[in-house]
Design brief:
Blueprint (H helix, E strand, L loop, with lengths): L1 H33 L7 H15 L15 H16 L10 H17 L3 H10 L4 E2 L2 E2 H6 L1 H17 L9 H14 L3
Antiparallel strand pairs: 1-2
Helix pairs in contact: 1-2, 1-3, 1-4, 1-7, 2-3, 2-7, 3-4, 3-5
Length: 187
């Protein structure tokens, strides 16, 4: 029975992860619009800004050049940070944020895939809002329109240069991904 559950999870991941890579540039563009959304609580905007900063900083959990896996960590961070940001939004206001809700919903599959390691990724995504990249923190980005505009410009350049990577539809790819994340995520 456990083998069947594992195979089902593997199939769901092997279907979803390539789809997430194909939509990553679009997802990131939609999130960039939320950094400026005054109706979104400040803490939620800071979490979104932290996730966007992750995309343009030089140190990834998985380097972008790693075949099959280079951008999946970006897709994971965007989704987990979206889930954390959505938690900051009062329940009645959540339905007005379909992009955030959709990405946050995807985080449940990441949680199932990572199992006991998921809290490490969640803590990592939450801490991104405390880091500075290119001389600005996520908090700076949210409160300063010039820094926000600079990040949005960098995100647009990132979107324009992004090419959908191949994600090998092979259970061994999931094993490699799990091993990378287990090794790179802080305890």
């Amino acid at each position: 029975m456990e083998d069947t559950l594992t195979e089902d999870l593997d199939e769901r991941c092997l279907d979803a992860f390539p789809r997430w890579l194909r939509s990553l540039a679009r997802d990131v563009g939609a999130l960039a619009g939320l950094v400026d959304a005054e109706e979104l609580p400040t803490e939620a905007r800071v979490l979104v800004a932290g996730a966007l900063t992750y995309l343009v900083k030089s140190l990834d959990l998985i380097p972008d050049g790693v075949e099959d896996l280079g951008y999946i960590d970006d897709a994971f961070v965007v989704r987990v940070a979206s889930a954390l940001a959505l938690d900051q939004v009062p329940e009645p206001d959540r339905e007005a944020l379909p992009v955030l809700a959709s990405l946050a919903s995807d985080a449940r599959l990441i949680e199932r895939f990572m199992g006991a390691q998921y809290p490490r990724l969640e803590r990592y995504a939450a801490r991104l809002s405390d880091l500075s990249a290119r001389g600005r923190s996520a908090q700076d980005i949210v409160i300063d329109s010039e820094r926000r505009a600079a990040l949005v410009s960098e995100i647009q350049a990132w979107q324009n240069s992004y090419e959908d990577p191949l994600f090998e539809r092979d259970p061994r790819t999931l094993i490699k991904l799990s091993a990378f994340l287990d090794t790179k995520l802080p305890a």
